[in-house]
Amino acid sequence: MNKKLLCVSVLSLGLFACSSNQAPISGVNSQANNPVDTAPVITNNNSSDVDVHTNNNNNINANSDGGNAVYFDFNKYDIDSQYEAVVNYNANYLAGKPGAHVKVAGNTDDIGSVEYNLALGQRRADAVKRALVAKGASAAQVEAISNGKLMAKFSNDSDDGRAKNRRADILYSKQAPAGYTTTANGVPVINQ
After folding, report:
1. pTM value?
2. Can you give the CATH number for the domain in which 184 is found?
3. Is residue 2 part of a domain?
């Protein structure tokens, strides 16, 4: 009996020690506790469920540099309207090329725990996947994964670097469009 109690105590202590002791980050997306499948996506403006937000932070404008990524505000995973062209281009391309395949990789800056950032990166990737599918891509063509803060492509030593790391990359693995490449940092671009 004492051995069983000791085993249960040790296992409980082990589980407690593995849990994160970091407090939640303030300013978290109000929908962060909802299931991932309820995250907002860019929707048709004729619809009554439009949930596209205007840029009020230091997002990078992917449209100006041919970037094939969607950038996010701090602790957010809703898609800003300035990235609608990126989503539309990729959704249209995928819809017209059934053999094409993309991996949407959600990334974060280095603020917060590894666990929190992996979950946030997954929410970002899932939001972009849902937007691509809503605009015509097949769900089978799009894989959503999270890198969290584990694969930073820019230095997190500055606000600019952290802003560049808060993104979901749309990476082609099969039948990439003409002009598709990656920058020296590994960020996808489509030069047209």
Report:
1. 0.70
2. 3.30.1330.60
3. no
Residue 88, classed as helix, strand or coil, is helix
* Contact status, residue 73 vs residue 56, Cβ threshold 8 Å: yes
The span from the CA of 188 to the CA of 182, in Å, is: 4
- Per residue of the chain (192 residues), give pLDDT as tens: 555 544 445 444 443 344 333 333 333 333 333 333 443 444 333 332 323 333 333 333 334 457 899 999 999 999 999 999 999 999 999 999 999 999 999 999 999 999 999 999 999 999 999 999 999 999 999 999 999 999 999 999 999 999 999 999 999 999 999 999 999 988 999 987
**Residues in the chain, overall count:** 192
Mention every residue, 6+ apart, whose C-beta is less than 8 A from residue 23: none
